[in-house]
Amino acid sequence: MTKTVEYIKEWQQALQNEIIYLKKYGSNKYRVTNGRLLSNDGTFTYYFDTAFSLKIPVGSSITFVWGGIKQGGRVLSSEGKGMIVQLEQSLGDLIPEAYIYHDPWELLEQLIERLGDITKSKQKRIRVNRLMNPSMPAKHPEEKIKSNVHELVLRSKYNPVTFVWGPPGTGKTYTLARVAANKYFQEKTVLILSHSNQAVDVLISEISDFIKKKDRFREGDVLRYGYNTGVAAESEVALTTNQLLQKQEHNLVEDKDSLIEERKNLKQDLAKSFSKRDSNQLLELEKKIARILEKIRQKEIEFVKDALVVGSTLAKSASDPAIYGREFDVVILDEASMAYVPQTAFAATLGKRVIICGDFKQLPPIASSRDSLVTKWLKEDVFHRAGVVDWVESGKLHPHLFLLKEQRRMHPDISAFTNQYIYHSLVGDHESVIKSRNHIVDQCPFSGRASILLDTSYMGAFCINEKSSHSRSNIWQALISLQLIHESYLGGARSIGYVTPYRAQANLMDLLLHDLYEKEVLSADIISATVHRFQGSERDVMIFDTVDSDPQERAGMLLTGKDSERLINVAITRTKGKFIHVCNHSFIRKHVYNRKTLRQLVEHQEKHSQSVRTKDIGTWIKNQLPRLKWIHALKLEQVFKDIEFARSSIVLSLPETHVLSEEWRHVLGNRNLSVNLTIVSGKSWPELKPDNWQEEGLTFPFIIIDQQILWLGLPLERGKGIQPPYIAARLDSQKVCENLLAQYFTAEI
Known about the structure:
Blueprint: H1 4-24, E1 28-39, E2 44-50, E3 61-66, E4 69-78, E5 82-87, E6 94-102, H2 106-118, H3 122-132, H4 148-158, E7 161-165, H5 172-185, E8 190-194, H6 197-213, E9 222-224, H7 231-234, H8 241-248, H9 250-272, H10 276-306, E10 309-313, H11 314-319, H12 321-324, E11 328-333, H13 341-348, E12 351-358, H14 372-377, H15 382-385, H16 388-393, E13 401-403, E14 406-407, H17 412-422, E15 428-429, H18 433-441, E16 451-455, E17 463-465, E18 472-474, H19 475-490, E19 495-500, H20 503-516, H21 518-523, E20 525-530, H22 531-534, E21 539-545, H23 557-560, H24 564-573, E22 575-583, H25 585-591, H26 597-607, E23 611-612, H27 617-620, E24 628-632, H28 637-644, E25 649-654, H29 662-669, E26 676-681, E27 692-694, E28 702-705, E29 709-712, E30 727-732, H30 734-744
């Protein structure tokens, strides 16, 4: 058995190796826009929009760059397409565009320090050992169990460590919140932890609501500590340190606000005319503000000390002595399957009892280095490293593993696959879930069907590796998926998710949505993201685009590698009522082994008659988008008309093996003389008299007219592997045309 000190040495080395890797490859650079000043209460808080969802740990240090101005700051929130940061100095009320550089190793260094503290405490070392080697007998009285909540209460009372396996939709938040409330009623102290603000907010809100319903809530007993993403605004009672300060120390808050306003005015005066007197006054004012901020900090520490239930992030718990310097009766760690093992171990040292909750069938923690210790301790969760998963794989539940085994999220036609193939038939459906999801199932497209395999086989070879990132994209499946979003929206859905393994494809869909579907996105909950960014979310309708298809010679590692089961599980289980799987069945059957989860999913959907074939495309496309038209590819009138009326340019991509008909040669040869024709192909086409020829071909042809109109699926691509019906797509989007040309062609076109 490994000694605790040896564990800690390996963890510290793993964290240090990750830090070295991150420092070597530099800071991450993010563009932020539409900055608005939120507050200037000693520090300056700004809200920024981001192009994509960023997951920067709360509390991380940043470097903020705006034009020639460069200053430090700290991340308060980074969830969704928005970020809140604190800056050292004010930069005005509005900041149109800036860049943030993130140094992610600071939080890892703090964790290394906390692990060093553990080695000095025998009690903490014992807690770590119990976590990593949970071989002690289970002592809770099984005969007294009355419910899930009661069982977890008993387990956490009699056992030092309890692992909770919470598959999607099984009532994890409900159960944890009521266990925490039960401890509260017994005057026990509880620490709620998670890696994300959102998870902490949800749990604290659920706990406080339940306590209020029991009419046993006392202000200050339940505290959300640190920056939060919404619990304060939604709560009728004081749950945060700011709210408590406003109620209990109102004069102190007023004094702070007054001094800060005075400083603001003084700085404005200094900007107009400098004087030694004003400068000295400012220095004195800064001292007063520092003193009052220290008083506020001491009050916040008192709030944490007096609270019975405290909720915070793992990052803040490792950086703030108000938390790590205190001992709790029970620690509840949510989403533990996404936390580094050293983080989980540190959390376990903060309480006499610990509840570790997560789902080891969902995505693991993320680390960058390929170092062996990093792989061992930072890329796998505690359920695996403590041996709990070994029991499950042998067909048994570990004595200290509590399984929540009844899901209420997904329609049974969707959960049937995950219940059987992912959760070993240990999880079932609550009797209410069919009735509660039928209204979603009955909506179009595919009314009356909950799980659909939309097969894109034999439609062309559209899967490309993006040059800059090497991530895969498939423009045909992206357009198909956009049409599905449109049909779902018109069918009544207002909660729609598009998820894909590949960042390039998620970005492409983001581009399509913002260019063609902005109004609908603003009026409904429609989001495009990678599977990694979707974990923890749910939607009524989910579209899962696997992207992979011809001409790729193998399926991507994201879909077939070590963690592919987890990725596919997350993609499926975000769904409430309608799961649409956009997938090239023939490609998967040819390139993915039988025992891989993706192949099992496709075969399962096929077996249960959930497939919609390529030939059926005309039956479900009922509502054309204004700027995306689906046309029978043999009807050439519209494309020839577009070529005839071209104003400046035509870009024609032709695979080497294709042959143009006389009709196409005639139309292209008789184009307007002022129109520049560029041929992109592995061979020259002198008969077309192109103005430019770029020797770089794709496996599928397309036409881009005036960098505005994109045609895909035309009969000129009726080559190998293409089967009827021949469908063409006409997309009116300058942004997509520019993106396609910029991503895949080296020369200026």
